[in-house]
DNA sequence: CTGTTTACATATAGAATAATTAAAAAAAAT
DNA sequence: ATTTTTTTTAATTATTCTATATGTAAACAG
């Protein structure tokens, strides 16, 4: 039996019975399962392997499930993993807390395995759309590697300062959408420090200089801000 | 006052009481709400405006909620809109069906408004990355993309100045309703700065020039102001 | 049909915004 | 502590947009 196509799901729960039950059902539904009885072993494993989804209980011997969830969602390596909280704690407050903290779904015990599987599939369907790739391309000439903090223009690496890189990244992640100068300032500087509007203009100018051919990808939207376009446009006179 | 930042949510339910209750709660949570009592009016509106999320009941006078969901998820204009099914049908079979058909969440009545809001926020959080774009459509020829500050006529991008864009946006958001020149001036200028009435006329004229085929969508209402219509009318003499 | 009102069109001054340059201030590296 | 790099501000230039004036056409009322 190959697990090649089987999607890997982590189950974190300290009750062996539940793990057993879940594991059985999910394996039947053609998933590849690993179970963990506490938070520490989960974190250890995450170093080597990233699952496609995590099913998380709240009451664990070492950590609090909410805490784990928060940590996973605050880490760039793991924040993309959908988390389904599966727990006996069924008050509205707990649900709201879990969902606000970053959980993608919250199911209370006792649960229907069929519904759980359906909800797992919803998450997997959605994360299919999320950019799994950490590389962004623009008009075949600009390439951003978010893992390596690397920018290439026509396959040639260019050096950017941190702020320049941040601005480019912000624009790149909202490709084609306009970012106000205000928003850009918010993003590049640790708040609580007033920075002048025109500063952004200067950064943009420097960025454009370094981008060379790709400079035209950064468009100014008069009165609003800037945007990075994905395709070069041709002027029609 | 402005709904600029308020996210637009559609509620589709044939029970006025539920609509009322939902509407109240969601407005309090700072959302912008529109309610629909059947599928047809929903589809009509989707033609002109794309909300950020839809809350959908199953039992409706004309269509079946499952059917609506399926259609929305199969249409390129709407498949990105998160759908939360909110219904009294609480069997596992119904839930599984709804989720498999493409719903992003499934909540059963009676529900906790707080949990609903938390789940709405989960969806909006996720769609932040998705390429959801607030778009408005008019008569199949005019398209407004609010995030990109982009206007297309017959799928061709046209460049507008900020004021022109603002006017068009204002008219678009109040489609088919007349906007007085006064109101338009209010909207385009930072208040407390008197601007002459005729100025609006000039902007409208420039706007029409740029809109080409779509120019006819901007109607003047003598003595009152202007409006943007959603369907082209044919003159009868 | 005529006069009056309102909308539409054109041209233009100057207001507003962006790009560029240079230089001061802050941060990082040596 | 000094040098280098980066970030921010300030000042200048270039560009685009806005608002008004003015003139023409269309709609309306009597």
Features:
8 helices; 2 domains; alpha/beta; Rossmann fold; Arc Repressor Mutant, subunit A; 40% helix; DNA-binding; 4-stranded antiparallel β-sheet; homodimer; 237 residues; 21% strand; elongated
Description:
2 copies of one chain form a homodimer. By secondary structure, chain A is an alpha/beta fold. Chain A folds into 2 domains: 124 residues, Rossmann fold; 95 residues, Winged helix-like DNA-binding domain superfamily/Winged helix DNA-binding domain (Arc Repressor Mutant, subunit A, Orthogonal Bundle), CATH 1.10.10. In chain A, the strands form 3 sheets. The first copy, chain A, has a 5-stranded parallel β-sheet with strand order 2-1-3-4-5, with helices on both faces. Chain A has a 4-stranded antiparallel β-sheet with strand order 6-7-8-9, covered by helices on one side. In chain A, a hairpin with a 2-residue loop joins strand 8 and strand 9. Chain A is elongated, with a radius of gyration of 22 Å. The termini of chain A are far apart. The mean pLDDT of chain A is 88. The interface between A and B is medium-sized, with 30 and 27 residues. The first copy, chain A, binds a DNA duplex (30 and 30 nucleotides) through helix 6 and helix 8.
Strand-helix topology:
The structure is a homodimer of 237-residue chains.
Chain A: E1 7-12, H1 16-28, E2 31-36, H2 39-48, E3 53-56, H3 65-73, E4 83-87, H4 92-101, E5 105-108, H5 113-129, E6 135-138, E7 142-145, E8 150-153, E9 156-158, H6 162-173, E10 179-180, H7 181-188, H8 197-211, E11 218-221, E12 225-228
Parallel strand pairs in A: 1-2, 1-3, 3-4, 4-5
Antiparallel strand pairs in A: 6-7, 7-8, 8-9, 10-12, 11-12
Helix pairs in contact in A: 6-8
Chain A binds a DNA duplex (30 and 30 nucleotides) through residues 161-164, 195-196, 198-199, 201-205, 208, 220, 222-223.
């Amino acid at each position: 039996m190959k697990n090649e196509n089987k999607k890997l799901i982590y189950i974190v729960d300290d009750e062996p019975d539940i793990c057993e039950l879940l594991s059985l059902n999910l394996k039947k539904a053609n998933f590849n399962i690993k179970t963990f009885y506490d938070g520490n072993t989960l974190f250890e494993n995450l170093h080597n392997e990233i699952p496609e989804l995590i099913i998380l209980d709240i009451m664990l011997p070492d950590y609090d499930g909410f805490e784990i969830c928060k940590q996973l969602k605050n880490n760039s390596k793991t924040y993309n993993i959908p988390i389904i909280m599966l727990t006996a704690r069924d008050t509205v407050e707990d649900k709201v807390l879990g969902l606000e903290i970053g959980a993608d779904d919250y199911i209370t015990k006792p649960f229907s395995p069929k519904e759980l599987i359906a909800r797992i599939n919803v998450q997997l369907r959605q994360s299919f759309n999320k950019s799994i790739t950490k590389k962004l391309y623009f008009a075949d000439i600009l390439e951003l590697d978010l893992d390596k903090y690397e920018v290439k223009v026509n396959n040639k690496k260019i050096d950017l300062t941190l702020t320049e890189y941040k601005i480019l990244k912000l624009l790149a992640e909202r490709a084609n959408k306009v970012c106000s100068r205000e928003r850009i300032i918010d993003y590049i500087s640790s708040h609580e420090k007033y920075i002048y509007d025109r500063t952004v203009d200067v950064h943009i100018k420097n960025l454009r200089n370094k981008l060379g051919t790709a400079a035209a990808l950064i468009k100014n939207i008069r009165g609003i801000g800037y945007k990075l376009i994905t395709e070069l446009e041709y002027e029609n006179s």
